[in-house]
Design goal:
TIM Barrel, zinc, tagatose-bisphosphate aldolase activity, binds zinc ion, 14% strand, metal-binding, Class_II_FBP_aldolase, 2 domains
Length: 279
């Protein structure tokens, strides 16, 4: 069933667990994630960035259709919505949650822009997530991680002012691959949990380490965003049967190869079936 993200996260917060939020780009991985969620009876949050698929509306129809058929609760979240326009499009495309990422802006500007989207989203029953502090890129972790941690007192004010449903926190994780070992600030997480009364989100779950992640999920994190590790696992699985050269380790390139394979096969069978030119 397709639900607002808030509904899933409120349950997770009550139960003291986190919901995985893998990034998806197309029907291939959306189906894979839903199958696993059903197999393991887990709620699921499908996260997608606006440029993941060439057409947000087509993609939205696929995801919402599959999610409605799912036998477990599924939310569909716009990951890192960077503009007001993209948030509007996502809502029209059927997303049940939008993340409004204004974490690089000064506090007041972050609040103002988040509020604008929250008002619109809530008017149609869509949840909203925003980020305070800034979760950087893994390769820059050593230089920009520390200075951008979430401030617990400011987080409380931010949640009250914006009325968001979930707060993405910066406590030492980073997007993409890490340079070195991430050091999660569990003391800081505890302070944020004590001052904020809505579900918390951890971005940059990949490469954070199972022990770190499990501890974070028991300590107040209710949603873990996962992208790099999902794509890496898919590529590793592929490499078992199809060797990929160095420098080609990019899942986005491989989607295209897959697609070409499907198209070639169908071209063949259209001819075999004799349906060419009959439409
Ligand atoms: Zn993120």
């Amino acid at each position: 069933m397709l639900l607002p993200m808030k509904d899933l996260l409120v349950e997770a917060r009550k139960g003291g667990y986190a919901i995985p939020a893998p990034n998806a780009e197309n029907e291939l991985n959306v189906r894979a994630y839903i199958e696993v969620a059903e197999e393991l009876r887990s709620p699921l949050i499908i996260g997608s960035v606006s440029h993941a698929n060439p057409n947000m509306y087509d993609y939205g129809r696929i995801v919402t259709d599959l999610a409605r058929q799912a036998t477990v609760p599924v939310a569909f979240n716009l990951d890192h919505g960077m503009t007001f326009e993209v948030a509007v499009m996502a809502i029209r495309a059927g997303f049940t949650s939008v993340m409004v990422d204004r974490s690089k802006l000064p506090y007041e500007e972050n609040v103002a822009q988040v509020k604008e989207v929250v008002r619109m989203a809530h008017a149609v029953g869509v949840s909203a997530e925003a980020e305070l502090g800034h979760v950087g890129i893994g390769s820059n972790y050593a230089v920009d991680g520390v200075s951008n941690f979430t401030d617990p007192e400011l987080a409380k004010k931010f949640v009250e002012e914006t009325q968001i449903d979930a707060l993405a926190v910066a406590i030492g994780t980073a997007h993409g691959l890490y340079k070195g070992e991430p050091k999660l600030q569990f003391d800081l997480l505890e302070q944020i949990v004590n001052s904020v009364d809505i579900p918390l989100v951890l971005h940059g779950g990949s490469g954070t380490g199972d022990e770190n992640l499990a501890r974070a999920c028991r300590s107040g994190i209710n949603k873990v965003n996962l992208s790099t590790d999902m794509k890496y696992a898919a590529l590793q699985n592929l490499k078992k049967v199809y060797p990929i050269g160095e420098g080609e380790e990019n899942i986005f390139g491989f989607w295209r190869l897959l697609q070409e394979g499907f198209k070639d096969a169908l071209r063949h069978y259209v001819k075999v079936c004799g349906s060419e030119g009959k439409a």
